[in-house]
From TrEMBL:
Signal peptide: none annotated. The chain crosses the membrane at residues 22-43, 58-79, 91-110, 116-135, 147-169, 175-198, 210-228, 274-298, 339-358, 364-390, 411-430, 436-454. SUPFAM superfamilies: MFS general substrate transporter (SSF103473). This is MFS transporter. Keywords: Antibiotic resistance, Membrane, Transmembrane, Transmembrane helix, Transport. It comes from the Bacteria. Residues 22-461 form the Major facilitator superfamily (MFS) profile domain. CDD domains: MFS_MMR_MDR_like.
């Protein structure tokens, strides 16, 4: 006689009370960080008219944020793991709100650049801490993938409505209003994450301040060299390039001998991790390059108002607000590689179509097709990248993993603005061909990243049976 064996009940993990509210708070925090980038894009002409300055000044107004964000993210993730992700997240959000209020009162362009760097530092404190909080709230990988999808969808709405909201705010009250909108958002986020659900235990990882200083110097000097090169300031560019090399060598030497490497060896040694990080940099290179160049063309070549320029971006900005939920389901079923590869291919195709539209005099119907393809590409690639990096992180290093991914994304954003901005001026027009060339750079970057991802995916499939 066969004895029936009762099925083993599924193992369940206790759900922290209030975790849905906390997830919404973390997502809104990232929403605010992204909003600060996207709302500024359509404010560029008004900002130049109000405070004066050249294209280089506008590039620094954008990249001052991403330089500080990208450089400090490397240690901010480690700080979140050491001191408690919930503390780092709340501090970053509070500083972001206060910094936004000061930025709205900036009397000149270079004061604004400095305050944008402060905002970048505050964003660096909050973003990797937010991903670590999500990992704590959702320890099961399948649930975590869905939670990341919700986080990406809510935060992606910043892309959907940022340029349009920024255009409306600029038309109503000028560029200063795009910073004031962050203040009530910061208060709301702090209220949502005020409970005990987000508390994370502190760790023991050390932070090397000298190595971090070398990272900041390297990225800032590299950005300065690219911007100066685009402006034709050859002596300035050469000096900045020499400084970049010196700072980079100092960073490499400190990484080898320092007590707390900024680039976690365990993360960099994970199979496929370097390729995923490169893909993240390529996505932001393309995204911020498009967001920097097109607003100037739409308003100065086509004569669109800031509001209409923001509306014109909807084909690109709507998909990241809604499609990540679908991407989360796909990632949970087939893994992250296919969505990453498909997203990069769509983004490369979209940038190529945008370049064609710009070369043809910016006919909006063709431009809208390119923007839609680019938006779909971003919405497929980014959630899959976040899930892949967080899932492969060693125990207790989720904050460092999130910080590393977001750091390379911000480096990509910085290089995207610096590289594409080298081909345009404040009075840019499409008929000289330079803006079209600027849009081909992101297409090339995403194509290269897609080829490397395809190669890495094949290697992972052979070596580990990854689908």
């Amino acid at each position: 006689m066969t004895t029936a064996i009762a099925p083993t009940p599924p193992i369940s993990t206790p759900r922290p009370p209030g975790r849905t509210r906390a997830l919404l708070g973390v997502a809104l925090g990232y929403f605010m960080v992204l909003l600060d980038t996207t709302v500024l894009s359509v404010a560029e002409p008004d900002l130049a008219a109000s405070l004066g300055g050249s294209t280089a000044g506008l590039q620094w107004a954008v990249t001052g944020y991403s330089v500080a964000f990208g450089a400090l993210l490397l240690s901010a993730g480690a700080a979140a793991d050491r001191f408690g992700a919930h503390k780092a997240f709340r501090f970053g959000i509070a500083a972001f709100g206060a910094g936004s209020l000061l930025a709205a009162c900036a009397p000149d362009l270079w004061t604004l650049v400095l305050l944008r760097a402060v905002l970048g530092a505050a964003a660096a404190a909050s973003v990797p801490a937010g991903t670590a909080v999500i990992a704590r709230l959702y320890p099961v990988p399948r649930e975590r993938a869905r939670a990341v999808a919700v986080w990406a969808a809510v935060s992606g709405c910043a892309m959907a409505f940022g340029p349009m909201a920024g255009g409306v705010l600029v038309d109503l009250s000028g560029w200063r209003a795009v910073f004031l909108v962050n203040v009530p958002l910061a208060v709301l986020v702090l209220a949502l994450v005020a409970g005990a659900a987000v508390r994370c235990p502190p760790g023991t990882r050390r932070i090397d301040r000298w190595t971090q200083l070398a990272v900041c110097a390297t990225l800032a000097l590299l950005t300065d060299a690219l911007i100066a090169l685009g402006a034709g300031a050859w002596t300035h560019a050469g000096c900045a390039a020499a400084g970049t090399a010196a700072a980079g060598l100092a960073f490499a030497a400190r990484e080898r001998r320092g007590p707390a490497p900024v680039l976690p060896p365990a993360l960099l040694g994970t199979r496929g991790m370097p390729t995923l990080l490169l893909a993240g940099a390529a996505v932001n290179f393309a995204l911020l390059g498009v967001l920097f160049v097109l607003p100037l063309l739409l308003q100065q070549t086509l004569g669109l108002s800031p509001t209409m320029a923001g509306v014109a971006f909807l084909p690109m900005t709507l998909p990241p607000g809604f499609n990540p939920l679908l991407t989360g389901r796909i990632v949970a079923r087939v893994g992250p590689w296919r969505p990453v590869l498909g997203g990069l291919a769509l983004l490369a195709a979209g940038c190529a179509v945008i370049a064609t539209a710009v070369s043809a005099g910016t006919p909006y119907a063709l431009l809208a097709v390119g923007l839609l393809l680019a938006g779909l590409g971003v919405s497929f690639a980014l959630p899959a990248l976040v899930t892949a990096v967080v899932n492969t992180a060693p125990e207790g290093a989720a904050g460092a993993a999130g910080g590393l991914l977001n750091a390379v994304r911000q480096v990509g954003a910085t290089l995207g603005v610096a590289a594409t901005g080298a081909f345009i001026g404040v009075g840019a027009h499409a008929d000289d061909g330079s803006p079209a060339v600027a849009m081909l750079l992101p297409a090339a970057a995403c194509t290269l990243a897609a080829l490397l991802v395809a190669r890495s995916r094949r290697g992972a499939a052979v070596g580990a049976g990854v689908r």
